[in-house]
C-alpha cells in the first residue's frame, strides 16, 4: 500500500486561506494548519455513502458492532446543522448520506474528498452502499459494480463544465472489487452477491426506460429492447450514481466501490412492489458484505 493522502486536482485550494464545506457544515478555518480537522477525522480509513440518512445511521450502528467499538447505539449526526446530509463517524469509518442521484451525490463527494485531504487521511476508501433495479437477477441480490456505464450505455461519465461536454472514464478500483468479493461474501449468506456492470442514470423513470413516469414516449417493446441491450453489456443493475462516483474517484486517484441491493427485476416490470419491511431487510444485505470487507481491511 502506498500510504498517501489523496492529491486533489485543484491548484486553487492551496491559495485558499480557509474552506467552508458548506453542505457538511464543516469549517476548515485555516488550510495551512488543519490540526483540528486532523484530530477529528485523521483516522478515517473508509467513507461509506448511501442515499438516505436513516440507512447511514443504521450502517454506523451496525459497523460499530461489527468492529467491536465502544457503544455507538446512538451516533451523533455531525452534519445536522447543515440540514442537507447526515454524517456519522464510528471509529475509522464515516457514514454519510448523499441523496438521490449524481447531482446531490457529487456535491457531498467533492466536500468529503476535501475533508479527507484536509484531515490527512491515508489511502481512504470510498464506498457506496445503495439500492438499485436488477437486470435478470432476483430482487434481494447484492451487486458489486465492475464497470460503471452512463445512461448512454458508455463506460464513462459526462458532465457540462463551462458550457462544454466533458467526458471522463468511470472505472472502480479492481482491488476493491476483488477484495469485497473475496472477504465480503460468505457461502452461508441467504442471498446471492454477484459482480457485474452497473448503469447509473440521471433519471429514475425515462432514464431507466420505465413506462410509468409522468412522461413516456416509447413503447414497451422499445423499453425491453433497451433493457436487453443493457443486459448484453453485462449490466446487472441500474441506479443513479455509479458513473459519476466512479469517474470522480478515479480522477483524484481514490479507491472506490459500489455495492447495491436490487429491489426489483426490471425485466419483469417497473413498479417497486416490495413492502417497506422487505426493503429495509434488503437494505441490510450490503451491510453484511461491506462490514466483513471493512473488518478485514482494518486488520491489515
Ligand atoms: O442509495 P439509494 O438507495 O438512494 O440509491 C438508489 C439510486 C437513487 O439514488 C435512488 C432511487 O430510488 O435509489
Ligand atoms: O429501479 C431502481 C430501483 C432503485 N434505484 C434505482 O435507481 N432504480
Automatic annotation (TrEMBL):
Residues 45-277 form the Nucleoside phosphorylase domain. GO terms for cellular component: cytosol. Phosphate binds at residues 84, 128-131. GO terms for molecular function: uridine phosphorylase activity. One of its GO terms (biological process) is nucleotide catabolic process. Substrate binds at residues 208, 210. Pfam families: PNP_UDP_1. It comes from the Eukaryota. InterPro entries: Nucleoside_phosphorylase_d (IPR000845), Nucleoside_phosphorylase_sf (IPR035994), Uridine_phosphorylase_euk (IPR010059). Belongs to the PNP/UDP phosphorylase family. This is Uridine phosphorylase 1. It comes from Drosophila kikkawai (Fruit fly). The gene is LOC108075405.
Amino acid at each position: 500500500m502506498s500510504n498517501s493522502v489523496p492529491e486533489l486536482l485543484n491548484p486553487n485550494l492551496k491559495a485558499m486561506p480557509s474552506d467552508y464545506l458548506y453542505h457538511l457544515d464543516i469549517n476548515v478555518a485555516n488550510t495551512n494548519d488543519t490540526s483540528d480537522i486532523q484530530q477529528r477525522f485523521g483516522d478515517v480509513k473508509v467513507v461509506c455513502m448511501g442515499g438516505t440518512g436513516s440507512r447511514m445511521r443504521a450502517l454506523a450502528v451496525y459497523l460499530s458492532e461489527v468492529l467491536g467499538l465502544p457503544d455507538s447505539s446512538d451516533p451523533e449526526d455531525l452534519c445536522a446543522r447543515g440540514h442537507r446530509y447526515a454524517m456519522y463517524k464510528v471509529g475509522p469509518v464515516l457514514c454519510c448520506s448523499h441523496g438521490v442521484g449524481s447531482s446531490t451525490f457529487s456535491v457531498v463527494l467533492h466536500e468529503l474528498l476535501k475533508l479527507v485531504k484536509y484531515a490527512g487521511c491515508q489511502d481512504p476508501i470510498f464506498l457506496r452502499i445503495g439500492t438499485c433495479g436488477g437486470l435478470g437477477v432476483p430482487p434481494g441480490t447484492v451487486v458489486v459494480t465492475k464497470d460503471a456505464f452512463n445512461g448512454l450505455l458508455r463506460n464513462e461519465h459526462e458532465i457540462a463544465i463551462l458550457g462544454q461536454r466533458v467526458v471522463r472514464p468511470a472505472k472502480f478500483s479492481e482491488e476493491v472489487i476483488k477484495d469485497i468479493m473475496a472477504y465480503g461474501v460468505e457461502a452461508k449468506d441467504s442471498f446471492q452477491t454477484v459482480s457485474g456492470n452497473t448503469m447509473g442514470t440521471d433519471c429514475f423513470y425515462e432514464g431507466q426506460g420505465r413506462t410509468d413516469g409522468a412522461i413516456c414516449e416509447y413503447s414497451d417493446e422499445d423499453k425491453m429492447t433497451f433493457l436487453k441491450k443493457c443486459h448484453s453489456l453485462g449490466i446487472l443493475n441500474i441506479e443513479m450514481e455509479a458513473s459519476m462516483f466512479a469517474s470522480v474517484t478515479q480522477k483524484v486517484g481514490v479507491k472506490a466501490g459500489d455495492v447495491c441491493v436490487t429491489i426489483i427485476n426490471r425485466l419483469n416490470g417497473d413498479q417497486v412492489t416490495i413492502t417497506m419491511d422487505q426493503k429495509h431487510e434488503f437494505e441490510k444485505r450490503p451491510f453484511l458484505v461491506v462490514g466483513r470487507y471493512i473488518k478485514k481491511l482494518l486488520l491489515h
